[in-house]
Amino acid sequence: MKLLRKKLLLLLVFSLSLASCGNGDNYEAYFGGEVSSPQCRYILFCRNNKVIDTLPLDEKNRFFVKFDSLTPGLYSFKNEPDFQYVYFDKNDSIMVNINARYFDESLVFSGRGNEKNNFMMELFLMNEKDRTKSAAIYDYNLKDFMRTIDSVNIKRTSYYIAEKQRIGWNDDFDFYAKSRVELNYYTKREYYPYIHKRHTGEDVRNHMPDDFYDFRKDVALDDPRLTNYSPFMRYVTAMINNIAQDKYQDTAKRDSLEINIIKLNVADSVFTNQSVKNQVLNTLAFNYLLEDQNMINNQAFLKRYDELCTDDSDSNEIMRIGKAVSNLKTGNKLPEITLVDSYDNHVDINNNIDKETVIFFWSSCSNNRTELVHNKVNALQLQHPNVNFIAVNIDEDAEWKKSIKEYDFKSTCQLRASDFRALKDKWVLTKINRTIILNPDGTIKNAFTNLMDSNFSQNLQ
Q1: Distance CA 129, CA 289 (A)
Q2: Kind and range of the H or E run holding 255
Q3: In this structure, are residues 97 and 9 in contact, taking their beta carbons and an 8 Å threshold?
């Protein structure tokens, strides 16, 4: 049945592709697909981080949309919390097949325009493999490090050139494809000096050749097309951190207020395009606000951010996060969100706390973590019998109830957040490892900790 559905989808795409051929005077385009094990019941179709359309999944987890006019270019689509890019040429008809449990690894494009997108996906997975399995290269001496990454870059560049010649994509798509190849290589070079010191204790900066950073001149730092492109933001974050480390030698305090303000100042000096600068400042601020929860530090940091950033719109996420973080300070009550139990009863968490309580989060999309986190809770319950543990799931209702039956979590209070966006915004949930500890009176004891930390139990009475 699943194979039949795929064939039907491919047939539909093929038909739409034929229909779109020769339409030189219009920009019709089609986008659709099927999502196995979806994390939410819709697909967000976006450009430049702004939602263009919300595409609901039907009862068979499929979606489909016809755009009467779609400007060619780079877009993204999300089945929250995961996302990926898709590039549309004129009159493309693109379908995707995804298993949301393994979002990136399972994603396959089909239809008119599929080849360039499958190439970009393959390049993405290659680079992800580099990051997860090549951490040891930063321990190498400079000569061996450069020999290793140069070898990988030569192979990656050869693959890019061969696919460019075979597929024959346009110059605009080539801008993103070439940038992904180059920025992956440049990011490794930016990482090297400070990761090497962190791993080995050796400071190699004074022994690096004078031309080591000449590649920075080749990066289009002020090109607005890159501001919402993750390879660019990853590179920029590494570059700014590297420059900031040179200005602030004490790398042991890399998350301190001082060095993060230095990062803001570096961004101010490096970028001339204000819209690009604003986006970089937002990324730096987002990372900092989720690491340092000292309220005095936050105020000082946001003051400097506000001096440099010209984005004073109501949609400025940084100011909203700053306000949300301040609401989660010690002694406050948790902001109200809608939580339900397995019988669909609403649970008011602020009025049902009578002893120290740990709130942790989980999703069925990560089976290994689900088992690990609940095993950790079982062990903590034995060590701290007077502490209450509440698990908050972020999945859709049907998926959550299915998981509860499958795992049989009877020893832990199981709740579900019926509105993930409210949970994300009010409780600043950006990482699934996030854990909140409440005092016996329901006030916040620590809103930013991690259940899986080896020393977590020291937070409990």
Answers
A1: 28
A2: none
A3: yes
Number of helical H runs and strand E runs in the chain: 13, 15
Reported as a pLDDT band with limits 50, 70 and 90, residue 23 is low
Confidence of residue 131 (pLDDT cuts 50, 70, 90): confident
Kind of pairing, strands 339-340 and 413-417?
A: antiparallel
Nearest CA-CA partner of 460 in 384, 364, 360: 384
Q: Take residue 126 and report the two structure tokens written for it.
A: 């290659």
Which parts of 287-412 are beta strand (E)? 339-340, 346-347, 357-362, 388-393
Residue 127 to residue 451: CA distance in whole angstroms: 30
Helix (H) or strand (E) holding 61: none
What CA–CA distance (Å, rounded) separates 292 from 91?
47
Q: Given a cut of 90, is residue 429 above it in pLDDT?
A: no
Nearest to 266 by CA among 286, 287, 292, 237: 237
In the predicted structure, residue 255 carries a pLDDT above the cut 60? no
Secondary element (H or E) of residue 256: none
